[in-house]
Amino acid sequence: MNSFALLEKLCNAHGMSGYEDEVRELISSEIEEFADSIKTDRMGNLIAVKKGDEKKVMLASHMDEIGFMVKHVEEKGFLRVTPIGGWFSQTILNQRVFVHTKDGKVTGVFGCKPPHIMKDEERKKVVKVEDMFVDVGAESKDEVEEMGIEIGSPVTMDRELSRLGKNRITGKAIDDRAGVAAVIEVFRESECDATLYAVFTVQEEVGLKGARTSAFSINPDIAIAVDVCVATDFPGVSVNQEINLGKGPAITVADASGRGIIAHRNVLNLLRDTAEKNKIPYQLEVGEGGTTDATAIHLTREGIPSGVVSIPARYIHTPVEVIDLKDYSNTVKLLIKSLERCEKYMKF
Ligand SMILES: [Zn+2]
Questions:
Q1: Distance from residue 62's CA to the centre of ligand 1 (Å)
Q2: What sign does the dihedral 41-45-46-51 (CA atoms) show?
Q3: Which residues have beta carbons under 5 A from ligand 1 (an ion)?
């Protein structure tokens, strides 16, 4: 199976938080024939089930990507937007975007002053998102309306996935379409005794929302979130922990300094033991910022033992995220092998 082709389709699809429809349809078409049942719940999560025994294991990866929402259209036709999800404002300047309307995608650009007319102090200043605007080429507010753009229209980055060097890829929304692609591949190939629930969640980037409701309805015995994590192996990063590209999936011990999740010991052991047994390279992660769907899942009902497997990624939450395909395939392998032996770790 060609992983790059799958990643390319998923990363190039557009699905801002709350507007994951295109991504959901794509996943559904990729996974349907391997599932005993598949459904979209009321929140919009896509849940595919592969029937096994009475034990339940849940894999979660989020479909949504960060973006913007149109909040105001100016008389001259410029759009003002609000960020949806965690952007660093300087990433946004001069990017090409798509504004999504009921009639399709409209191209736009985040404009900004050229250096020629900037004052010295302006050049040193960080530009705030509220001072930015999207230019869709319209001459007036009326023309914007004719294009089908309205208050609430979602905006996403226009950037296609590309290969980078021998083993790496770069693009937008690798967070978390790489996780989505991995879960699709795992679901297709897995031979797990327990009943497997592959959940493609909505609105992770704005508060882990889909994970919360789907975990409640499924009530799994254990859960694993599959996401990307912050790699720290590039210039200018000074932290005491190293997460490197190419050194294997990251298994989370704790994230957000323990305020996110402290991985359940059984799930942590399942992942580590499986990696050791199968000689799959891995890195242990203790994160201080950022969290995943597992944070919401593990606090559902009376508590659901949960853990996280992540693909290390550089420049997360930019249109030029980078991962290593070796880490991606080792993530798939680690999950497939872990599912085969997960019931041993369900004694609590
Ligand atoms: Zn993510």
A1: 7
A2: negative
A3: 175-176, 227
